[in-house]
TrEMBL record:
The active site is at residue 251. Heterotetramer of two alpha and two beta subunits. It comes from Catenulispora pinistramenti. This is Succinate--CoA ligase [ADP-forming] subunit alpha. Residues 4-104 form the CoA-binding domain. The gene is sucD.
Amino acid sequence: MAIFLTENSKVIVQGMTGSEGMKHTKRMLASGTKIVGGVNPRKAGTTVDVDGVEVPVFGTVAEAMDKTGADVSVVFVPPAFTKAAALEAVDAGIALCVIITEGVPVHDTAEVWAYNQAKGAKTRIIGPNCPGLITPGASNAGIIPATITKAGKIGLVSKSGTLTYQMMYELRDFGFSTAVGIGGDPVIGTTHIDCLQAFQDDPDTAAIVMIGEIGGDAEERAAAYIKEHITKPVVGYVAGFTAPEGKTMGHAGAIVSGSAGTAQAKQEALEAVGVKVGKTPSATAQLMREIMQGL
């Protein structure tokens, strides 16, 4: 089992014919993802040879879905055009839209989120500014390296792309049901809480790793949710224990004001509801290792 993405997922790539889109389309295909088409209005009706696989290019997401049965779109378009691409995916009613692009204006993301809600929230949006998600051995929608881990029973939700990769690698002997990089922007389509609930409901996920970072209150809200709704073991890591107060660090959402949003405050909130929190990514992996060995 997995969350959001399975071996049967049919994936299209918005912006496939661009350099980044093509590079990662090749990687996704190589990892077993069912790539059924690309979307580029200027190249509609053509096909692209992707390492020996002929992939058709469609003019719109709706056309691609109609012709291929696609249910997942991965967005590799520049920030200025990301809103239009995401709105098109929502209008078409695709089940999952994964927005890899970084530098998307927060107002644009908020507009897409609100539009999706108004349309009945039929599309799950992951990102922007994220590495996407992977169900090892089944499908890979985004830029997560497919060769660093295997299928297993750990669920992973993370704000950080590189920490996603590190955690997957460190726990590669146990493997993952699904790993989801939700992105580090202040407004994102899918939250820690969304993933926690999905992992709770997935019978083949035995335990959950949650990676957060300084800034905002997402981790505190996740802690409150864990207390009320999650019965599976959860371990956590919060990036930014040594970050200086009041300074924006890396991700757009990682800004601390006073005691709110600090790594220490987030750690305390999580530990108060029984989540074991590591001081480093490796220490966090070790906490999960001990849990998995005891299951």
